[in-house]
Design goal:
elongated, mainly alpha
Length: about 80
Amino acid sequence: MMVPTLLLGIYITYLSKKNISELYHNLAVCFWIAANSMWMCSEFFEFEDTGKPIATILFSFGICILAYYYITCRLKNNFKK
């Protein structure tokens, strides 16, 4: 079920490309789904030594995307008002 979930997340992200706020949030959700999938597979198939660091990197990408959005885009709009 992780493949259809990730594909649907990517599709929703593609559909939200006109709204920058939704785009960044949906992109972070895609990274979160990918990280959870990697984490789950690494525990199930017992390759935790390599799978968990990759999942951590994917989680970090999602956090960085949201941090970038809130620091740059959101603060710029607040200062313009």
